[in-house]
Fold:
Amino acid sequence: MKKTRLKKYAELIVKMGINVQKGQDVIINCGLDQPEFVKMVVDYCYKFGARKVTVDWYYQPLDKLHNRYCSIKTLASVEKWQLEKWQHRVDTLPAILFIDSDNPDGLKGINEEKSAKARMKSYPLIKPFRDAMENKYQWCIAAVPGKEWAKKIFPNLSTAKAMEKLWEAILYTARVDEDPIKAWELHNKDLADRCAYLNSLHLKNLYYKSNNGTNFRVGLLPNALFMGGEEVTLDRNIHFNPNIPSEECFTSPRKGDIEGVVYASKPLSYNGQLIENFWFKFENGRVTEVHAEKGEEVLRHMVKMDDGASMLGEVALIPYKSPISDLNILFYNTLFDENASCHLALGTGFTNAIKDFEKYTNEELHEMGINESMIHVDFMIGNKDLSIVGETMSGEKIQIFKDGNWAF
Structure:
């Protein structure tokens, strides 16, 4: 892969993704797969004025070892220095970049019950710090190829060719081969215009139907807004793009107001384990039935993580015909697969989806109907025959999606 193209991608992530500010700290979380690219990103962070860039490397095989040998108490422990590290983030509000290259099967075989119990015990210790940072800092998730991930997608190619082909797909979906900065400015405007139209309809319900068996209703909050593309931090008013790539217009539904059955249209890679051919039944807003041909146990643990894990926190609209979908590649990675298809998310919702959210406390926003949970797990439901009909506050029915694509 030519370095000139990778440099354009690195610059895009730093400028349009986290939009690092002069004098700001940056934290990069990434695997060991592409150290040279990470070096490029760090270089651009400093060129755009970062005070200090910290790279936190991780390695999936170590996570498997920790899961095997550590007790639940040890896995759940949050040391004093870790709490101090979180407090430092609250005080300094660094820009945080996640560079994903994980093997979709990288944690296959771990003790999921043990892992889930550890996360449930540690989450309350970390939650106050996360709440204090919410909506106040820039963050972005982007991706680079990993060998195992590339071979999962392209099993019939050599590792080198699979890596090259995955790089091509990533750069294409990120609009790197155009003028990437200009392309993202135009893309953000298109998403903003679509969200503005959706918000003008004053929708109270969305009705989904598909030939695969999906038939359900999602209730919307009267004061929640559809969002898409770039977001803006509180206080400092810094624009950033949390996902590269991104094709979605999304909002948070009314907590507990979902009914019906929904079938996933793509596999889900959750915590390094694949879940395939699954569906949920919702009653009174909660998942009451879970079925999967593969990974059902993982799915069952997921929806029991806490009180909000069985309820929806997001509904996202993405046309079946989109740059990612047109590639006809199953990425086994939520960042890409969720942006090739309409999707939902179990777990926590977005407090900044509420109009004038900055005027309310987090507690007030959750009381309004934004779901709260320690998880936020996207799963894909879109396909080429999906129909979505919106119902307005006045009872008018408006076609939002027809045959998997925007109806407007």
